[in-house]
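BUG: 3D viewer hangs when loading the predicted structure for this chain

Environment: internal workstation, default settings.
Expected: structure renders.
Actual: progress bar stalls at 90%.

Input used:
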Amino acid sequence: PETGWAVWIGHYKRDKWKGYWGSNPFLYLSDNDKRRRPGKEATFFNSHISTQVIGELFIHVIRSPARSFIDGWRFSPPHKGTLFRIWPPSGVSIAWPARTMTDHDADYVASALFLFLQERGRLAALRDAGQASSP
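Structure tokens produced before the viewer hung:
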């Protein structure tokens, strides 16, 4: 893929988690773009998070024009060793199958960035309203 894409894979054996495919579009704006926009609501989307489970292969993809943000996105421990970033290439080999992801791991990965963005937007709205200080 071109720049602005990140792809992770993991070994996942489904237990009770029902997710097979998840899709979350979002709008990313630079600080300059935010200042020029009259409204706060997204009228279009330029970024996307999707998760697919194919057999025992868990695939998580993020695409956005915010290359530095996407390149810097990391999942927090304890999920290390269950999920591997394969794009952009790191040059590191992966022993496969890796440690198997749990239902909790799969749900966490599928929703982590979207929840982070929602919280970030909520905090920005509170700051704009004068109700919160910067984290």
